[in-house]
Specification:
Blueprint lengths: L1 E6 L5 H12 L3 E3 H11 L2 H11 L6 H12 L8 E4 L5 H9 L6 E6 L2 H10 E3 L6 E3 L26 H15 L1 H7 L4 E5 L4 H15 L1
Parallel strand pairs: 1-3, 1-4, 2-3, 4-7
Antiparallel strand pairs: 5-6
The protein binds adenosine-5'-diphosphate (ADP) and zinc ion.
């Protein structure tokens, strides 16, 4: 099963990607996570991406296209994959089409802007394993600690309010046209993101089971 997760920043793509990955035993890649790891490790890729990310802008298409091509060519993707955060522009989607990889479903998680702004202000992420919590909606069992690995949770640099605004602008301007792009191919499934993670999960699972 080859799945794309679409949605505004903070819509909960990462959480759903992890769940689908575990339930269906297929790998997922988050371009955002991959880029953050590269920045942290100071690699050439990270050095290229950092200024864009800190400003809440998209990194250049060719950078993320390279990441995705490498992932898709790996052996572990032969039974399917989930793309979390790619494509995020029409040129990226066209590059994906040119690889010849067939997509089964584009799952779009819809959340209105004001809710996204509220969510991001409470988001806490684990720098060690990438897990994401929210102080209100998805609190960790032990305050300030990652449920998965126990590491200290931190606020993502690009979750600062002014950066969130820039991310939403680039989402609406550059990424959102992908809804029409994939709807025209008959691949788009829309799920309304709910306040509770488990309610969104139920809708995502229902969409996934219709696919089989
Ligand atoms: P979110 O979806 O919450 O905004 P991500 O972790 O997916 O966060 O992405 C973080 C940042 O990484 C983005 O703001 C952008 O700078 C960069 N990025 C991730 N995926 C892409 C992509 N497909 N194209 C361009 N930039 C990307
Ligand atoms: Zn962790």
């Amino acid at each position: 099963m080859n799945i794309i997760l679409l949605g505004a920043p903070g819509a909960g793509k990462g959480t759903q990607a992890e769940r689908i990955s575990a339930n269906y035993n297929i790998p997922t890649i988050s371009t955002g996570e991959t880029l953050r790891a590269a920045v942290k490790n100071g690699t050439e890729l990270g050095q290229r991406a950092k200024s864009y990310m800190d400003a809440g802008a998209l990194v250049p298409d060719e950078v993320v296209i390279g990441i995705i091509k490498e992932f898709l060519s790996s052996e572990k993707c032969k039974n399917g994959f989930i793309l979390d955060g790619f494509p995020r522009s029409i040129p990226q989607a066209e590059a994906l089409d040119r690889t010849g990889v067939k997509i089964d479903m584009v799952l779009d998680i819809e959340v209105e802007d004001q809710k996204i702004i509220d969510r991001m202000s409470g988001r806490r992420v684990c720098p060690a394993c990438g897990a994401s919590h929210h102080i209100m909606y998805n609190p960790p069992k032990i305050s300030g600690k990652c449920d998965k690995c126990g590491n200290d949770l931190v606020i993502r640099k690009d979750d600062a309010p002014e950066t969130v605004k820039a991310r939403l602008d680039s989402y609406h301007g550059i990424t959102e046209p992908l809804k029409d792009y994939y709807a025209a191919k008959g691949l788009l499934t829309v799920v309304e993101g709910q306040d509770k993670v488990e309610d969104t999960s139920a809708l995502v699972d229902a969409a996934m089971s219709r696919l089989k």
